[in-house]
Amino acid sequence: MNSLVTIKSIPNGIKVLLDPDCDFSLIIEELGKKFRDSKNFFKGGRLCVTFSGRVLSEVEENTLVGTMETNGEFTVLYLVSESGNEEDRITKALAGSRLKDDDINGFGAVYRGSVFKGEHLQFSTGVLILGDVEPGALIKASGNVIILGGLYGSVNIECESGTPGFVFALELSPERIRICDARYYSPDKPRWSIKPKYQGKIAYLSEGKVIAKEATAQNLKEMLKG
Q: Choosing a second label site near 108 at 20 to 30 A (CA), which of 3, 90, 207, 226?
């Protein structure tokens, strides 16, 4: 008998493959068992999760997430489902920060995919990046830079007018962050690694210096509202 649930590692977390035809209650039962058996690996972590294989309702997605978190004792940091349109996926990708639709403003642009070594991307607004920024890559923007992946390269935020932007990444290990004229360098050598546990961080301008600290739902929400 084929497995009803298969768990695979992907660059930004895990992918959960679901049988498309069986009763949903059987999916829940097997999913709970798999994460109970793997609890020592996942416990205390923050995972990025993608569901694949069957179309899910919002209620079913929430049930799956609850089953995973309860049995694996970890937090689903963000969720991207294969069901729904691209706008829905982006909204769901921010669910780990518990943001509402009306909180998601100021992005200006969405870049789907990782930014590779040697690539220099420039945006006249803020930008939401659905991927990693690799070592040797550079992002220039005139607003908030939100990276649903790791920042291992560099980000420059221009401050021509208005409130200075901020940088958020699921893993913050940059070569450099510049906000206005202030610069931030990671205390550790920038590292580019694939791992299932993340602690999102936010970098922002405070009293002429760029400060980096762990991101919470509340401080990220406040930053987005400006």
A: 207
- The set of residues, in sequence order, having a beta carbon less than 8 Å from that of 139 and lying 6+ positions away, is 115, 121, 123, 127, 129, 133, 145, 153, 154, 155, 156
Q: How many CB atoms lie within 10 A of CB 216?
A: 13
The reported pTM is 0.53
Question: 114 with 97: CB under 8 angstroms?
Answer: no
Nearest-angstrom CA–CA distance, 132 and 170? 9
CA separation for the pair 206, 219 (Å, rounded): 14
Name the segment(s) of the chain with CATH classification 3.30.750. Answer: 5-84
Mean pLDDT by groups of 10 residues along the chain of 226 residues = 79 81 94 90 76 86 88 74 46 44 53 86 85 91 86 90 80 91 79 51 86 74 64
Among 200, 193, 137, 134, which Cα is nearest to 167's? 200
